[in-house]
Design goal:
The structure is a homodimer. By secondary structure, chain A is an alpha/beta fold. Chain A has 15 helices and 16 strands. The first copy, chain A, starts with a strand and ends with a helix.
Chain lengths: 391, 391
């Protein structure tokens, strides 16, 4: 079940309502990532207080621990994690990349030479073939096999509102030849998932094709031709922001207007603006919580700038006696109650509490940004808001 | 400022009200420990939701990080940590033990041979002399010196409602000769602290003397003779529960009725009952949060038994598919919202969220126990409650 209604447009940017099993959400929206059935360091009560509309969990991790059957026995993922609002699950396909070529190539979905924030080079523990993905479990090193059948079966048992087809997320350093071959497989798996899908969960197809125009267009046409409830755009997204924007332009031009569009795994401020501008409705990203644990807090302009990624490094000694909240413009509970010096102190003393506080603020920051973006589109002022943020 | 009023008695057990700068608390009560200005993995909002009346922070840690001057500049500890209710600080004296002889002797305040829950043998980083305590900082290994003057000065700057005199907590494995010598010093420091004390903070004297009757009695008489606002009983508490009960009996018999009595660093269920029975009003203990992080959740009888320390090990595989809350009798937010299987899962996947959830439940458990104890004393049913719990 998925009913998508576009409620306003400003250029290609659009607001909408997306009806799912557990409720109706407003788009554009960002899904905080609850990989293992919890957003790291956050309680479900925190996320409700933040008015998060939808979360996304991870099939690969949950099928290994606690196992799909356990979750099903307990009444599904919503009950399991105490979340009565909409949920999504990815298919496990992204882990074919993150545990495979991402390690071998030492890259994220977009390849920036010298990017320090990505994985170190390591040994791949995922191998893909036309039949499926052979994984090693990160928990007990057991051999695991994921194919469209298992992915759909697991996601059915988990029971999220919105599920994804199994695909291969290629590496931005993969060759065109490899990417082309992989795309064929991804398309075949998409058809297979569609055939196997028998629940009232919304099924989302995924466009791949790396940073090659012909492959992205071929994929956009093919996935659009199938009766999916929504369409996601998967990585790799090339070697620069420009590549990513091109990929979005080529792809979205060929997508049906009436289906919701999800840009997978992307969710930093700059990218959100560029993607919403091009007609993206959904995002998911681990960044707000991941950077929180590393000591970065999001801040709004003018303090937050594109160049500094709208972040301050709160562990810096310059905040050692700073009585201001993380972001003086922010109205979240953490900014109302705590100072930079206190948060700096909790980092210096390695106190777990701080992961909760900064994650809470960072998620608030992005959800508030999404609320502001929706409002701006309704008022036909999206470009004004974008300019205010991006200059 | 400290006004203590006994409001009801049942045998030697008593309820009271304790008026402090930031409010009036009901006793007997347990203070969750916020060593470095946070109760580990908990927010101040969590602790207010739990209706915690008072917290205790640590002078040694806070004078090193962020430093007493920083805290003072920010308006004191209450403001610093977003806590508008009463606060206590210990004097730093306990660290002379925990960083000193506790490591050399590999013991806690009560010595149980083979106790696995205590520190491993290690090198002492605290040396005590008549002048004061020479410490190594656990943060940067710098040499630090703490004497009555610095302890009182630091505690004044921190600005808690209730502060403690500098003492030496001896080891249960120290000789009588050493303990006697140490007691003289502790008494001299108590007088010194009293002379130096010039604020409206309540100043608490500490009775020491190990597990020797004559020393404990000497100390109880001496500390009682001084104009402290309240009296604490410090460790060591001997080599058995029996030793601890004897020490309480000998000491309390000589304490003035009208001053509040704090049993330092003790707070497991069995000890709370035995101490309240003998007339103790205040407790502080890291156990609820420390055991939470190790996977232990408190449970009420009949599931919780004295033999099993009123705990279940939630990481055990037997809870892998258990839909019940941590404690089926508990009404805390965590027990209302989460199951054992989910909490078991969060431990197995090393998710930070779980430290918050189980700490929250464990603190609720103890604060609820204190509420039930106060109620039972008012109704002259303390022994009935004790029997229900302890058999």
């Amino acid at each position: 079940m998925l009913k998508f209604k576009i409620t306003s447009k400003d250029g290609k940017a659009r607001t909408g309502t997306l009806k799912l099993k557990h409720g109706t959400i407003k788009t554009p929206e960002l899904m905080p990532v609850a990989t293992k059935a919890t957003v790291r360091a956050m309680t479900s009560e925190d996320l409700k207080e933040l008015d998060s509309q939808i979360l996304i969990c991870n099939t690969y991790h949950l099928m290994l621990k606690p196992g799909a059957d356990t979750v099903k026995k307990l009444g599904g993922l919503n009950k399991f994690m105490n979340w009565d609002r909409p949920l999504a699950t990815d298919s496990g396909g992204f882990q074919a990349f993150s545990l495979g070529l991402a390690k071998e190539h030492s890259t994220g979905k977009i390849y920036f030479p010298g990017n320090k924030e990505i994985l170190k080079k390591g040994k791949s523990i995922a191998k893909i073939s036309d039949k499926g993905i052979k994984f090693r479990s990160v928990y007990d090193n057991s051999e695991q096999f994921l194919d469209p059948k298992r992915s759909i079966r697991v996601q059915k048992k988990l029971g999220a509102d919105m599920i994804l087809v199994l695909d291969e997320c290629t590496s931005p350093l993969s060759s065109k030849e490899y990417t082309k071959k992989s795309l064929k497989r991804t398309h075949r798996w998409a058809e297979e998932c569609l055939k196997l899908h028998k629940t009232n969960q919304a099924l989302i197809g995924i466009v791949q094709g790396g940073h090659w125009r012909d492959l992205r267009e071929e994929s956009a046409r093919f996935i659009s031709s199938l009766p999916f409830d929504g369409i996601a755009i998967g990585g790799s997204l090339g070697k620069s922001k420009k590549d990513m924007h091109n990929i979005l332009d080529w792809t979205i031009a060929l997508l049906p207007d009436k289906k919701p569009r999800h840009l997978l795994g992307i969710g930093v401020v700059e990218d959100i603006f560029e993607a919403v501008k091009r007609g993206i409705d959904l995002f998911d990203c681990v960044t707000p919580t991941r950077i929180a644990r590393k000591g970065y807090a999001y801040v709004t302009p003018p303090l937050g700038t594109k160049k500094r990624k709208y972040r301050i490094k709160i562990t810096s000694t310059k905040y050692k006696e700073d009585k201001k909240p993380l972001d003086p413009n922010c109205r979240c509970r953490v900014c109302k109650n705590y100072t930079r010096v206190y948060i700096n102190h909790l980092f210096k003393t390695s106190e777990y509490t701080v992961y909760n506080l900064v994650s809470y603020h960072n998620i608030h920051f992005l959800l508030q940004l999404m609320r502001d973006i929706r409002k701006s589109i309704r008022k036909k002022e999206f470009n004004k808001l974008k300019k205010k943020w991006m200059g």
